[in-house]
Design goal:
alpha+beta; five-stranded mixed beta barrel; 2 domains; OB fold (Dihydrolipoamide Acetyltransferase, E2P)
Length: 241
């Protein structure tokens, strides 16, 4: 092959080699990003595991102002009286089927009321019926601290004007019920003391705690694609393909 022909063929390989090197750099960056995500997810899982298994922390010991993200799933203890007239039913899907979360504020001495998710009630429940069955005496609640869920679910926004709720947006619920509760967090109840009559009680303790962790497999996939791109770039650059 003459010199000009070889030079022309060499130039024709530059574009695919450059494209493969660019892809390799992109795949390497994505792999490194997944490695960072893996470290973040493992730290999150460890934090949540520690929070859910720790002894309940009294609500008075929570920092003020509270960062709900830093304390989410922390077990806490609260004592006070429910405010039944501010009850909200939020659409729910649980291990027990479709129904509602029974959200009721708990008036606490020395701080704003805190909305409590007392648990699951079945389809067909009415807010007035649930409110009438809510205990009015002093109770102690142990549960998990949760962040508010603004606006509603992914597919269905809350409709406060129709009293239809698909996400536990605490600020909107409190505004609809004209109560000055904690706006950014609530508590998923695990237990109440004294326990309400079983026939009337919502079912507590149904919080789903699941954090899929596929970041390692994603990282290995991106690094494998990076290696493949580099190998192809070498083969093409040497004229073997």
């Amino acid at each position: 092959m003459s010199g000009p022909a070889r030079a022309s063929k060499g130039r024709s390989r530059l574009v695919p080699v450059a494209a493969l090197l660019l892809c390799a750099a992109l795949f390497a960056a994505l792999g490194l990003w997944q490695v960072k995500r893996l470290a973040w997810k493992e730290a999150l899982i460890a934090q949540v595991s520690a929070n859910t298994t720790a002894a309940p922390l009294d609500v008075a010991a929570l920092p003020r102002p509270l960062d709900p993200a830093a304390q989410e799933y922390r077990r806490i203890r609260l004592a006070g009286r429910f405010v039944p007239q501010a009850t909200v039913l939020v659409a729910a899907t649980s291990d027990l089927g479709n129904g509602y979360w029974d959200m009721v504020p708990l008036a606490i001495d020395g701080r704003a009321p805190v909305y409590i998710n007392r648990g699951f009630v079945p389809l067909g429940s009415r807010v007035g019926q649930i409110a009438a069955a809510t205990p009015t005496g002093r109770v102690t609640v142990v549960g998990l601290l949760r962040k508010s869920e603004p606006h509603g679910s992914f597919l269905r926004p809350n409709r406060p004007q129709d009293d239809r709720w698909y996400g536990r947006d605490i600020a909107a619920m409190a505004a609809a019920r004209h109560i000055a509760s904690e706006p950014a967090w609530f508590v998923d109840a695990q237990a109440e003391n004294p326990a309400p009559p079983a026939a009337q009680a919502p079912v507590p303790g149904l919080t789903v705690i699941a954090f899929p962790n596929n970041h390692l497999s994603y990282a290995l996939t991106w690094f494998a694609l990076c290696a493949l791109s580099l190998g192809l770039a070498v083969f093409i650059g040497r004229g073997r393909l």
